[in-house]
Amino acid sequence: MRDMHCHILPGVDDGARDLDESLAMLRAAKAAGITSITCTPHCRSPYFDFEAMWQAFYELEDAAEGFPLQMGFEVNYRKLMELGLEWAEVLHFDGSNEFLLELSVGARSSSYDDYERTIFELQGMGYEVIIAHPERYGAIQRDLGLADELVRMGCKLQLSTDFIAGGRFGVERRPAVKMLKQGLVSYFASDAHRVVHYDYFKKAHERYGHLLQ
User: What pLDDT is stored for residue 42 in this prediction?
Assistant: First the structure.
């Protein structure tokens, strides 16, 4: 079972603070039944340091005793616009065409027209666009039709499993469950920043895993 979104790399964003914490998270991931991990440090201000993030990946890979790790990024839409779409070539999941895109939590529904254009451009470049934690976005919480439209566009939706405990902002559980029941969700991911987040991953799979598409 793959965890496709987590902040396990040591010392590069608001996730694991050092290698010891990274390895503690790795042990927790294994205990939750995870058999491979895509490391997705933040590509957004103030954290993004491409070279340092790759070095942190190599450091963890060397210490992981052969556990399957893949490098990727959680790419914030606004940061991608700042960098330019040509950066997609080095920000997708290494060795695959998957691209994890984070939208803006507070964006209004009118912003989704801009997202749509960017998503179509990424798809035209050959990437499979995965939308990170749609349950956190206020516009989607107010109108699940926006989530449905993203799926109709060919996106995959990835819930962060802390929704099982209410989510980062305390209101994500209800929209997450609604999206699951409507058949809109393809993936669960831990979005782990700390060891405890892997408990949520296990519980979400046990309770709702049968609803994933």
Answer: 98
